[in-house]
Design brief:
This protein has helices spanning 31-41, 47-58, 93-98. The protein has 108 residues and is mostly helical.
Length: 108
Amino acid sequence: MPVSGYDAPQLFNLDDDPEERHDRAAVPANREQQEALLALATADWDGTAILTTLERRRQGRPLPSPAAGVGMPRASEFWVAPAGCNVFPEDPPEAWEEGLRRPPRAIK
């Protein structure tokens, strides 16, 4: 499986080799760790979905969104804070009515 332009996944010990100069993937003692990391990295990988996405992009077609078919919530499902909420007692009453707040004061 080609990975980022390489023929095989790479494995580095970042504690001993932070510049990633010595690939440890071919060391037999690291095989089990490499297989576990590869399984973790590809656990939710769906090759068909990736190829479909790439083809749609190539054709300039829009990608389906996660919310496709869900639509926008109805206006009745939006919560609007009543007047006077989210205000501070030191704000003037007109700010309470308009939902506005003064810029923060400097701390003394």
